[in-house]
Fold this protein.
Amino acid sequence: MHQLLQGVYDTVVSRNKGEVEFHQAVHEVLTSLSPLIEKDPHYAEAGLIDRIVEPERQIIFRVPWVDDQGNVRVNRGFRVEFNSALGPYKGGIRFHPSVNGGIIKFLGFEQIFKNALTNQGIGGGKGGSDFDPHGRSDAEVMRFCQSFMTELSRHIGPNTDVPAGDIGVGAREIGYMFGQYKRLRNSYDAGVLTGKGLAWGGSLVRTEATGYGAVRFAKNMLATRGEDLEGRRVVVSGSGNVAIYATEKAQALGAKVVALSDSAGYIVDEAGVDLELVKQIKEVERGRIKEYAERKGGSVQYVAGGSIWDVPCDVAIPSATQNELDGAAAATLIKNGVVAVSEGANMPSTPEAVEAFQGAGVLFGPGKAANAGGVGTSALEMQQNSSRSRWSFETAEAALDAIMDDIHDSCAATAEEYGRPGDYVLGANIAGFKRVADVMLAHGVI
Ligand code: NDP
């Protein structure tokens, strides 16, 4: 790493002690920026690098709520407003027991460059809570969301900060949060949240966008080698929003998705996953992936625990959570002949895994590029809210495809320009950084 960047990294580590995911995300970006700083030293002027790794604002708050037995529970809420050079802060809200300041900071940092890559005029932010919605009643989830939004509402707005969903936050939670925001403000500010229901300001294709986009990115990477997804064996980890719609699009393009997972285990269905059943179990009943094997029976296998990456495939789409695919899992995938990895989740591959994929010549699409279709379509939802218009599915999907194709091409062209053809990590980091950095320089030291 360039000496100046190393100095910034060392400060990040000492100033954000113990926040290992944040350190990891910063390390990857700064490593990628070395050739840029060598070539264009002005990007290191005006404290630009020191500023970009420090959030503009961090909000931490108490979220008290009452469970169904009448007990008072206390969770912790976070919103990290990382960078507003390109537009209002934009990024999801995660409800998961593992959430802490470092995880939200890593996600917010990634979001800056991802959002820049979409070219949609959105800054970077992220939020969440250590609240676990699993096993909670609808009434409990509603009371929690209302309490969370009571504080968050002071900090967000359609031109300030526009949250969306992420792990543990889907249409139900967005609905409760939007309702509370509207009540507190006495104003129908549809553009304050994205991922809304279709009847109250949501956009067609937003639900599908992240998964569809990750598959589009895989398709584009394969096309650079004259290959496609037709007939390919695909493994998708997770079985939430991203995984379900990655599966749907991969199947539509003629691939066979053979495995899905959740945090308890994974299923293998050699006949190809029955997505209607997965949607019924996960979206309607909020059940576990093991129920898929119980209901299907026959040759469907359920493996409790274990690693889904043991299942041989041509294309892997990790779509569960950060650091779910380590060096050993990457080695297994490579041994089994994987040709492309497109990250549906944020930072699912460890640095060792990324190095292994790139070393073996596997096409590797990092999350900040490959999963940017979700936030890109959120920006399209904001556009529709501002103009009080409603796009058809076809119009929204064509716009998503155009965003994904543009991201792919700009990452590929940037990698080429900096002497690393095919390195989408370097391409995404430099291309995203330059868009933000140019504007930060124009705005002066703020
Ligand atoms: P969901 O909550 O809908 O689904 C998450 C899935 O991942 C579930 O199957 C869950 O299993 C599994 N999972 C979550 N945490 C873990 C864990 N610690 N270990 C193993 N499995 C886990 O979330 P999304 O599909 O929305 O998000 C998935 C990933 O995609 C995240 O990294 C998110 O940041 C990223 N992403 C999402 C976007 C979106 O538009 N939704 C946009 C861009 C990125 P279980 O139910 O057992 O917990």
Residues 165-168, 210, 238-243, 262-264, 319-321, 324, 344-346, 371, 374 surround NDP (CB under 6 Å). The mean pLDDT is 98.
